[in-house]
Amino acid sequence: MLILVDWSAPLRRRVQDAFGTRALLCACALLSAAVAGDTAFAKETTKLAVYKFELNDFSAAGGIIPPDAKDATYLAQATEEAKRLLSQSGRYTIIDTAGAQDEAVKAGKMSSCNKCVGPITKKLGADEGVIGTITRISRTEYTLLIQFFDAGNGKLVSRYFSGLRMGANYSWPRGVAWLMKHRILAKSRG
């Protein structure tokens, strides 16, 4: 009777154990690095300078009735709603614009400052500047335009337009929320 002994079996097991152990150690090291250093792997947020939203009144009464305190209140609420939603998305860090000493910022005329958005935004330490413009068509109709400008070169990065929306000045923050949720934050910008 001939008995065959497989002398390679113990060697094969040792090699398999060594490779299996190494693979397991590598997998554990990668996993622990990913968990412990999660912030190292996280994408850095874009710093945004969100300027006060502006009103262009093209309604029939626009040349006769100046913007009132309620308009100013709802514009401020629209600006704050934009900041809140952008910040909550986790993609953006909001940079305070209150300290800007430039006349265009103080006057709330960033949309017509002739390419000053880039330099002012860069001075504030932000990557991009955000300008929101509400255009009143009538007392119960408006449009909303939100534009993102690069701080380095001042060029337009992206723009979002709401189309015609129904509602008086009290609905401007709601219009901002709609545009943020359905256009700006619904996909990656760029």
Structure description:
Helices cover 42% and strands 22% of the residues. With 190 residues, the chain is α/β, with parallel strands linked by helices. The protein has two domains: 8-41; 46-184, TolB, N-terminal domain (Rossmann fold, 3-Layer(aba) Sandwich), CATH 3.40.50.10070. Strand 5 (141-150) and strand 6 form a beta hairpin. The longest helix is centred in the first third of the chain and has 29 residues, at 8-36. The termini are far apart. Residues 24-31 and 33-41 have low confidence and may be disordered.
Main β sheet profile: 7 strands, mixed
On the 0 to 100 scale, the average pLDDT is 83
Rg computed from alpha carbons, rounded to a whole number of angstroms: 28 Å
Instruction: Indicate the overall shape.
Output: globular
**What is the CA-CA span between the terminal residues?**
78 Å
Assembly form of the protein: single chain
DSSP, total strands: 7
CATH topology-level fold name of the largest domain? Rossmann fold
CATH evolutionary superfamily of the largest domain = TolB, N-terminal domain
CATH class of the largest domain: Alpha Beta
Show unreliable segments.
24-31, 33-41
Q: Give, in order, the helices and strands.
A: HHEEHEHHEEEEH
- How many helices? The count is 6
Q: Tell me what portion of residues adopts beta-strand conformation.
A: 15-25%
Helix content: 40-55%
The chain-level structural class is alpha/beta
Supply the CATH architecture of the largest domain.
Answer: 3-Layer(aba) Sandwich
Could you say how many structural domains there are in total? 2
